[in-house]
Amino acid sequence: MLTIDQIDLADIDFFVQGDMYEAFAVLREQAPVQWQERKPGRGFWSLTRYEDVVAVYRDPQGFSSEQGVQLYFGDASPEQAGFRRMMILLDPPRHPKMRQVLSRRFTPHAVKPNAEMIRRISSAILDTVVERGECDFVRDIAAKLPTAAICEMMGIAREHWELMFAITNETLGRHDEEYAKGRTGQETAYAAQVAARDFFVHEAARRRAHPTNDLISALVHGAIEGEPLTSEEISFNCLLLILGGQETTRNATSGGMLALMQNPDQGAKFAANPDAPAAVEEFLRWTTPITHIMRTATRDAAIGGQRIRKGDRVVLWNAAANRDPAQFADPEQFNISRTPNDHVAFGHGEHFCLGANLARVEMRVMFDEALRRLPGLELAGQVEKLRSNSVAGIKRMPVRFSPTRPADAAHA
Q1: What domains can be seen in the chain, in order of their start residue?
Q2: Per residue in 186-200, pLDDT tens?
């Protein structure tokens, strides 16, 4: 069993080669509010209990988002990272006002009409693989739906979807050599950000001249207290929509399908009732695509008997909270009938994921379509993880299944 001294949550390779859930179990038991400082000036608090994580989420005044929300050191300057421009990096009172510019587009009522579009895209994606009898589930299926869906909602032409996919990979996979290509994490993320900024400045100019009903136009013509958003706010929040619109759904779908394949009893139960809402929530809890969110203390505080000082970094380990036995019965058991299931895969409180309703619809449709059209789906090789301590990502997952004919044109 791991000892606390062996656990370095700032070591990205640990999340690829080690067992983060074992580490979280040790910390929850022995040091649920733990200070780690392996290098001077790079210290942070790790919170691994559900109740502590939720308590900090509920206190956006005491624990700020404005100094960064990911546990990377020296990864980007405040200007490069979009501080105080991107919604996720804002505190009240600015944050809720910025959120209101887009929030009505992501209510259950607003998202519902997109279900047919999402099913059409899902069916078309599966049409490209069903005759082959094998594919990479991540690249060929799971990654394509959320990219297409968010691009459709943003009004981004199909010819640019690959660019949006690449921008997401380079931003969130900045420490993975496949995407870094010899660059530092900072250089990789900044190059992606420049590409995104150039693209969205052009798109914003088009929406100013010719308003539409898409998400980019909502930002371009949105206002806060009568003042239009700046060009930087528009570009950075378009980038946020692209990142958020792809990553959670891609990894929850990939990880959820892996769990179904590894737990045949749950796979059979889901196939018998794919519309069960509890299943999607368990996919999210089990995979927790965003492993952590960071905050910075704005005042001295006490958590779990530990004194948190103003200016300290406080890391909320969502993945640990979602396996806390004090909150979830048998948390290490994958159970698609689990209820209640108050997970924090989408965060909690002020910064609860804006696109949660869209992600749930995408997942429900894709799981339904994939299990129906890929009979006998099973793992066919080694699963390759993304090198990251912030995204529980799967880069590759080879699968095989019984080949079938593509759907009729009416369903494609």
Answers
A1: 4-411 (1.10.630.10)
A2: 899 999 999 999 999
